[in-house]
């Protein structure tokens, strides 16, 4: 549908008006929105948990290299 013009592809307004775009049913759009909202919430939670884990790891490494950890203190 695009026509080359001055080294640039061009789609005219009348061509665009004739373009048929499929639109999912409203129920499918709502379901997608719910899933996306859930995924984005989990993503934010995992990012926060990852930042917490990084902070805890850095603190543990700092204590280990400064000699503040003893073998018996954290044995499993």
Draw up the topology in text.
Blueprint: E1 3-5, E2 8-10, H1 13-18, H2 26-65
Antiparallel strand pairs: 1-2
Task: Summarize the structure in words.
This protein is 61% helix and 8% strand. It is mainly alpha-helical. It has a domain at 24-66. A two-stranded antiparallel ribbon has the order 1-2. The protein is elongated, with a radius of gyration of 28 Å.
Task: Kindly summarize this structure in a few lines.
This protein has 76 residues and is mainly alpha-helical. It is 61% helix and 8% strand.
* Radius of gyration, whole Å: 28 Å
Indicate the mean pLDDT.
Answer: 87
Major sheet: arrangement of strands: 1-2
Overall SS class: mainly alpha
Percentage of helical residues?
55-70%
Percent strand equals 5-15%
Which consecutive residue ranges, at least 5 long each, have pLDDT under 50? none
Query: Cα distance, first to last residue?
Result: 67 Å
What shape does the CA trace take? elongated
Count of β-strands: 2
Q: DSSP helix count?
A: 2
Question: What series of H and E elements makes up the topology?
Answer: EEHH
Main sheet characteristics = 2 strands, antiparallel
What descriptive keywords fit this protein?
76 residues, 61% helix, mainly alpha, two-stranded antiparallel ribbon, 8% strand, single chain, elongated
